[in-house]
Design a protein that fits this description.
The chain has 201 residues and is of the alpha+beta class. The chain is built from four helices and eight strands, in the order H-H-E-E-E-E-E-H-H-E-E-E. Strands 1, 2, 3, 4, 5, 6, 7 and 8 form an eight-stranded antiparallel beta sheet that branches. A hairpin with a 3-residue loop joins strand 3 and strand 4. The chain binds a DNA duplex (13 and 13 nucleotides) through strand 3, strand 4 and helix 4.
Length: 201
DNA sequence: CCACGGATTGGCT
DNA sequence: GCCAATCCGTGGA
C-alpha cells in the first residue's frame, strides 16, 4: 500500500455509480499527527442528486447539504438521529448534488485508535475488529469524523483515499439501499461479496 | 413558531 | 425483533 498514491480529483468528478463501484476495495485514510487510520472500503451507496428522491439534495440547496453540491472529491458529513454522523464522498461536477455514502470499512491500520474513538469511556479492552467500522455512523466514530470534517478536500493531506486496483466486477454485488423511505426499490447499494465487515448481508 | 422525523445504533424483550 | 436515544434541519401554520 502506497500512502503517496492518492486518488486525484478526476477520479471523483465522474458518474456517481461508477465512482461508487470503483471506491470498493480502495483505502480510506485519516492522518492524525504521525498516525494513520486506514480502512478498506467494502460497502457504499450512491445518492444521485435531483433524480433521486432519497438524496439529501433532491429538494435543492440548503445550508445542511451545500457541500454535496461541490464538484467531486469533497467529504460531505451530516448529522442524524440526534447522535450520529455519516460521511459521503461527493462525486460529479459542480452543482450536481451527488455523493457516495460510505457504509462499511474493513479495518487495516490504527485499530487501537479506532477502538478508543468508538468506545470512549466504556469497556475499551473488549472491542472486536468487526464491530469497529461496519456501519456508516461507526466509520465516523472510529475515524473521528464530525461537523468539522464536513467539506474536507479529499485531495488534501488530512483525509484522502488511496488508489488501488479496481475490484473485479464479479466480486461486486448490489442491493436496495438501507434505512431510506423513498426510492426504496433502486439497487444503488454496492458491496464486496462475502466480505465479513459489511453492515448487513 | 412549532412539530416531525431521519442515508443509525445498541440494548432489551 | 422492537424501540429509545437525542439533535436540529426542514416544512407547514
Amino acid at each position: 500500500m502506497n500512502l503517496q498514491k492518492k486518488l486525484p480529483r478526476k477520479f471523483y468528478t465522474r458518474n456517481v455509480h461508477i465512482v461508487a463501484k470503483e471506491l470498493l476495495g480502495k483505502f480510506l485514510v485519516r492522518k492524525i499527527g504521525r498516525k494513520y487510520l486506514i480502512g478498506k472500503i467494502v460497502e457504499v451507496e450512491a445518492y444521485d442528486g435531483l433524480v433521486d428522491e432519497a438524496a439529501h439534495t433532491y429538494s435543492g440547496r440548503t445550508k445542511r447539504n451545500e457541500v454535496m453540491f461541490n464538484e467531486g472529491g469533497f467529504l460531505y458529513v451530516y448529522f442524524t438521529y440526534g447522535m450520529h454522523f455519516c460521511s459521503n464522498v461527493v462525486t460529479g461536477k459542480l452543482n450536481e448534488g451527488k455523493a457516495v455514502l460510505l457504509r462499511a470499512l474493513e479495518p487495516v491500520n490504527g485499530m487501537e485508535q479506532m477502538a478508543i474513538n468508538r468506545f470512549w469511556g466504556k469497556n475499551i479492552s473488549a472491542w472486536e475488529l468487526k464491530d469497529l467500522t461496519n456501519g456508516p455512523a461507526k466509520i465516523c466514530r472510529a475515524f473521528g469524523i464530525a461537523h468539522s470534517e464536513n467539506g474536507t478536500d479529499l485531495t488534501g493531506e488530512e483525509i484522502f483515499i488511496l488508489a488501488s486496483p479496481r475490484i473485479n466486477a464479479n466480486k461486486i454485488a448490489s442491493s436496495t439501499r438501507i434505512g431510506i423511505k423513498k426510492s426504496v426499490d433502486l439497487p444503488w447499494r454496492y458491496y464486496i461479496k462475502n466480505n465479513s465487515f459489511l453492515s448487513r448481508k
